[in-house]
C-alpha cells in the first residue's frame, strides 16, 4: 500500500508541501515564530493539550467525513501529522479523488495524543478546503458528462494556495487552464487598448513569446472573427448567450482553435452551454467560492 504521505502522481512538489505545512502549523501554534525541529512541539504551544494530556499518552485519530463529497489533500494533511509526530503510523482507507460518504474514515493516524491534537486543525483546514473544491468540481464535471466539454479552473485562487487548489480541481475531474501569467498569453480588453488592436496585441505576443499559446478574450461574435483573423490559438468567450456560443463554434469550424465559455456560468446552465460545442467551461467559483467539505478528527486514546 502506498504511504499516506506519498505525493507521487499529485503534481505537488514536496518542498512546496513541506513549506505549506510549516506555515500552517506556525500560524496555529506559534503565531509565526519557527517551530523547533526536535522537541515535543505541543508543550508550550498547544496550551490546552499540554495542560490536559499526559506527555506519554498515545492514541488513534480518524479523519472522518461529516458530509458526502470528493476527497482531496489527504497526503498533505498526513504530512501535517508527521511533522509533529515523526514516528506516527498512518493508513489511508480513502484516496484523493474518491467519492466519500458521511461517516467514512479517510485517514487514520496513531501517535502521541498531544501531537495529534496540535496538528488537528491545520490538517483539517487543508483537507477540508481541498475536498470542498474537489467536490464542487465533480458536480460541474457530472453536469457536462458526455458532451466532450472539459471543466477548467481560473487564476482566482487563494494567495499562497494555488498549487493545492488547482490539484483539488484535478481530483474532482476538472483540468487546470494555466498556473499563472507566464504559461499562457491571455489578450484581454486592456491589452488590446494598450496595443491598439487585437491583431497588434497578438503579433506582439508572437514576437516576444513565440512558444506560448495565445488566447484572446471575446465579448461578441464579431470579436471572434477578429481574433481568428489575428491567428489566436484559443478564444475565451466571455458572457455570451448560448446562441452566440453556437455562432462562435460555427465560425471556428474545422480550424484548430479551442473555445472556452466563461462568465456567469451556473450548474443549471452548464449542460446547455456545453451542448453548444465549446471545448471548455471555465469556472472561477471552483477555487474562489467553493464551501469546504465538512471533515472532523475523532480520537481514541490507549
From TrEMBL:
<comment type="function">
    <text>Involved in the catabolism of quinolinic acid (QA).</text>
</comment>
<dbReference type="GO" id="GO:0034213">
    <property type="term" value="P:quinolinate catabolic process"/>
</dbReference>
<comment type="pathway">
    <text>Cofactor biosynthesis; NAD(+) biosynthesis; nicotinate D-ribonucleotide from quinolinate: step 1/1.</text>
</comment>
<dbReference type="InterPro" id="IPR013785">
    <property type="entry name" value="Aldolase_TIM"/>
</dbReference>
<dbReference type="InterPro" id="IPR004393">
    <property type="entry name" value="NadC"/>
</dbReference>
<protein>
    <recommendedName>
        <fullName>Nicotinate-nucleotide pyrophosphorylase [carboxylating]</fullName>
        <ecNumber>2.4.2.19</ecNumber>
    </recommendedName>
</protein>
<dbReference type="GO" id="GO:0005737">
    <property type="term" value="C:cytoplasm"/>
</dbReference>
<keyword id="KW-0808">Transferase</keyword>
<dbReference type="InterPro" id="IPR027277">
    <property type="entry name" value="NadC/ModD"/>
</dbReference>
<dbReference type="GO" id="GO:0009435">
    <property type="term" value="P:NAD+ biosynthetic process"/>
</dbReference>
<dbReference type="InterPro" id="IPR022412">
    <property type="entry name" value="Quinolinate_PRibosylTrfase_N"/>
</dbReference>
<dbReference type="InterPro" id="IPR002638">
    <property type="entry name" value="Quinolinate_PRibosylTrfase_C"/>
</dbReference>
<keyword id="KW-0662">Pyridine nucleotide biosynthesis</keyword>
<feature type="domain" description="Quinolinate phosphoribosyl transferase N-terminal">
    <location>
        <begin position="46"/>
        <end position="131"/>
    </location>
</feature>
<comment type="subunit">
    <text>Hexamer formed by 3 homodimers.</text>
</comment>
<dbReference type="GO" id="GO:0004514">
    <property type="term" value="F:nicotinate-nucleotide diphosphorylase (carboxylating) activity"/>
</dbReference>
<dbReference type="InterPro" id="IPR037128">
    <property type="entry name" value="Quinolinate_PRibosylTase_N_sf"/>
</dbReference>
<comment type="similarity">
    <text>Belongs to the NadC/ModD family.</text>
</comment>
<dbReference type="Pfam" id="PF01729">
    <property type="entry name" value="QRPTase_C"/>
</dbReference>
<dbReference type="Pfam" id="PF02749">
    <property type="entry name" value="QRPTase_N"/>
</dbReference>
<dbReference type="InterPro" id="IPR036068">
    <property type="entry name" value="Nicotinate_pribotase-like_C"/>
</dbReference>
<feature type="domain" description="Quinolinate phosphoribosyl transferase C-terminal">
    <location>
        <begin position="133"/>
        <end position="298"/>
    </location>
</feature>
<keyword id="KW-0328">Glycosyltransferase</keyword>
